[in-house]
Design goal:
By secondary structure, the protein is of the alpha/beta class. The protein is 28% helix and 15% strand. Strands 3-2-4-1-5-6-7 form a seven-stranded mixed β-sheet, sandwiched between helices.
C-alpha cells in the first residue's frame, strides 16, 4: 500500500516525521559508519533534528543531526536504523522528505518512559529501578533522572522540531522503538510497554501531532543471540504487538536472524546485545517494508 504524507512548500524541511527512541540499539551502539558504503552517505532529502543546535539539518551519521554526541546517546559515527528506514522512503517516494527526531539512552530501563502513579502496581518497582541510576554516567544532564525522564526529553525535542515546520506536516508518522534488553521481567515489561505506547499516542493527540491513518508504532526485536543463548526472552512480549486489536497501529519486527557486533576492542568476541552495521541497515529496510504495508 502507498504511504501518505502531508507535503508543504519548503523543500529544506521534512514532511514525514520519524520519532526514534529506546536503548543502545536505537543509538547505534557497536555499529559504525562506513565511508565506503553508499547506504551510509547523507541524502539531501533526509533530515535530522540536531538537539544542540535546535534545528533541522541534513541527516548525517557523523554529526549531531541524529542525536546528542554522548557515550550513552547517539555517538557521532554510530549507525541509525531510522536513517536507513528514511533511505528506503526516499528511494521509493519521490516527494517524501523524512525527518528523524532521536532521543534514546543506552541501558535505560523502561521506567524512564513510564508515568506510573503512587499506588499503581508497578510504581514502587519502577522507582527502585530508576533510583539505581543515581550518580551514574548514563545521563549527562541530571544526577537522578526521574521516572519518565527520557520520554519527557523526547517529547520536548519532538515538540521543538515540529514547531519549525508548516502546520500541514505537523504529524508524527512513525515511532520506531528499540528497547527491551534492560527489562527481562516479562509481565512488568508488557504492562509498561503498553503504557508507553498509550503515553506516546495520547501525547501526540493532545499536541495535535496524531493521525491514526498515518501513524505506526514499530518495535524491533532484540538480537537472536540475546534471546537464544542468553535466555532474555523480551521478544515474547514485543511480538504481542502483532495482530493486537488494542493496538492496531503497532507492529513487531523480528530481527533475530541478523548478525551482532563484536565487543568494543575485540575482533573475535561477539556482543550478544548489539546489532552490527549491516544489521542496522537491514532493520531500516524491514521497518520500511512493515510500515509500507500497514495503512
Amino acid at each position: 500500500m502507498p504511504i501518505y504524507f502531508n507535503d508543504h512548500y519548503n523543500l529544506n524541511l521534512p514532511n514525514f516525521i520519524i520519532a526514534h527512541s529506546g536503548q543502545s540499539n536505537a543509538e547505534g551502539y557497536g555499529s559504525r559508519y562506513d565511508p565506503n558504503n553508499l547506504e551510509d552517505q547523507p541524502d539531501n532529502r533526509i533530515f535530522g533534528w540536531n538537539p544542540n543546535a535546535s534545528e533541522w539539518q541534513i541527516a548525517d551519521l557523523n554529526t549531531e543531526s541524529l542525536g546528542w554526541n554522548y557515550e550513552t546517546f547517539k555517538q557521532i559515527g554510530n549507525q541509525s536504523s531510522a536513517f536507513h528506514f528514511a533511505k528506503k522512503l526516499v528511494e521509493n517516494y519521490p516527494g517524501i522528505r523524512p525527518g528523524i527526531v532521536n532521543v534514546g539512552v543506552s541501558g535505560a530501563v523502561i521506567g524512564f518512559w513510564t508515568n506510573w502513579k503512587s499506588g499503581d502496581e508497578y510504581y514502587d518497582y519502577t522507582m527502585h529501578n530508576c533510583a539505581w541510576f543515581r550518580g551514574k554516567n548514563t545521563f549527562p544532564f541530571v544526577d537522578l533522572p526521574p521516572q519518565g525522564y527520557v520520554f519527557d526529553v523526547h517529547i520536548d525535542e519532538i515538540n521543538k522540531s515540529l514547531q519549525k515546520i508548516p502546520d500541514q506536516s505537523k504529524i508524527v508518522n512513525v515511532l520506531l522503538w528499540q528497547h527491551g534488553e534492560g527489562n527481562p521481567e516479562l509481565d512488568y515489561l508488557q504492562k509498561s510497554l503498553y503504557h508507553v505506547i498509550d503515553r506516546y499516542i495520547n501525547t501526540f493527540k493532545n499536541l495535535g501531532y496524531y493521525d491514526e491513518n498515518k501513524f505506526g508504532f514499530i518495535s524491533i526485536s532484540t538480537t537472536g543471540m540475546l534471546y537464544e543463548k542468553n535466555g532474555i526472552k523480551v521478544n515474547d512480549v514485543l511480538q504481542t504487538l502483532n495482530n493486537n486489536s488494542s493496538y492496531p497501529n503497532a507492529r513487531y519486527i523480528s530481527c533475530t536472524d541478523l548478525e551482532v557486533s563484536y565487543l568494543v576492542g575485540s575482533t573475535t568476541e561477539l556482543d550478544p546485545f548489539h546489532f552490527n552495521a549491516d544489521s542496522q541497515r537491514t532493520i531500516g529496510k524491514r521497518t520500511f517494508e512493515t510500515y509500507n504495508n500497514m495503512h
